[in-house]
Amino acid sequence: MWNKPWSFKESAFIGGGLLVVGLLLQLTIGAIDWSLLSAPVNVVLLVTYLLVLGVSYAMRKQIYFIAWSMTLHAAIPALICGVAVTLLMGLTGWDEMLRAWPFVLIYIWLMSIVGLIAIDRILRLFRGPQVASSRLATFTSVLNHTGLFLAMVCGTLGNADMQRLHMTVKVGEPEWRAADADHQEVIRELPIAIELHSFTIDEYPPQYTIIDNETGQVIQDAPWQIVQDTLFEYAAPRPESDGYVEWRSMGACTASHITATSSADPTLKFEGWVSCGSFMFPFRALRLDDRCSAVMPGREPKRYASEVTVYSEGGEKVDAVIEVNHPLEIEGWNIYQLSYDEALGRWSDTSVFELVRDPWLPWVYTGIYMLLAGALLTFLTNKKHSNP
Question: How many angstroms separate the CA atoms of 298 and 98, rounded?
């Protein structure tokens, strides 16, 4: 080992060494606190890192390690180490990889290899005359390596500036304060405010199941068939009766009249009302025998959304409907529908929004687009060369 030219063995040794050093750092000084690297610290780190890469590339002929780092013998084991660490942390439930020293050190090593190759390809593109096919291949390599480097660097350093906040807003009460998603006790005042006008929820049709009377647990494959006779989406218990009436006021629940028939004895039938209840009216079950009862579980939300007006310090005013997976973007903030008052359910007068801001994200997207363009050029070039 360590006899020139170096091979995969030396690269594997370096990867193992970085993992050991990372574990020691993790055990001694703890996880990485990215909040210490927020702007302008991360910008200074980026400039310094790029200068170090540039100087290292300039010294590649004097320092064998740098020249070797730009070969497949260094890149392939580094990539394998990165994938292995990622899988290991994922399988062990370690969900904060970017705060783990072993992952970050391997990531920096791999990122530096990609950066050195990107510099080489960029400079090669502007060296002397080249045939068209060679220049196209070099340009494709520039897109691939530079795009990957840009996405990796900005995705890492941008982690320090990313903000994830939770804002709870009640109808008719504009709110501009939000709590840190990871530290709810930390409250921040934002340059935007949200006014909630209304909250709506669409629910899946009611379902029916059989539960054990003593434990309340669902009985799988219970020998009962349930048929719905009458359904009230909005209902209230009928006074002085065991039935329900349609009622569309605040607090209404879902209720239905069902018939339960025994699979073992079709002559054995029970009929009556069941309801999932609401914050105003109680849950109701239909008792079938000493062992089990038929019930309507709480209805699952299919879609929920908030009608809002968002104001910004810059004077912008936006009326929008925010729902899950359909965020509103305004002045660098993405606003997502996160939750609502589940105790009130469909009658909730409160929405919980997640606000995310990542000023480095456009650069990450730029790197991804460059990668996609490079992959497309590679595909088209190979297809052209394969055709006689």
Answer: 38
Question: Measured over all CA atoms, what is the biggest interatomic distance in the chain, rounded to whole angstroms?
Answer: 95
Neighbours of 21 (CB within 10 A): 13
Token duo for residue 359: 């000023």
Span 159-165, mean pLDDT? 88
Question: Higher-confidence residue: 369 or 82?
Answer: 369
Q: Per this entry, what is the length of the chain?
A: 388
Strands 286-287 and 269-275: unpaired
Contact 82, 22 (CB under 8 A): no
- 360 pLDDT more than 80: yes
Beta-sheet pairing, 333-340 with 328-330: antiparallel
pTM, full prediction: 0.74
Q: How far apart are CA 306 and CA 353, in angstroms?
A: 9
- Burial of 93 (C-beta count, 10 Å sphere; 0-12/13-18/19+): exposed
pLDDT of residue 160: 83
User: Nearest-CA neighbor of 22 among 109, 83, 91?
Assistant: 109
Element (H, E) at 184: none
Residues 15-66: pLDDT tens digits? Answer: 889 989 999 999 999 888 887 888 889 999 999 999 999 999 999 999 999 9
- Interatomic CA distance for residues 320 and 310, integer angstroms: 8
Domain ranges of the chain: 8-161+362-386, 164-202+302-357, 210-279
Residues 6+ apart with CB under 8 A from 162: 356, 357, 358, 360
Q: How far apart are CA 199 and CA 236, in angstroms?
A: 22
Where would I find the beta strands (DSSP E) of the chain? 163-170, 175-180, 187-203, 209-212, 224-237, 244-246, 253-262, 269-275, 286-287, 292-295, 301-312, 317-323, 328-330, 333-340, 350-357
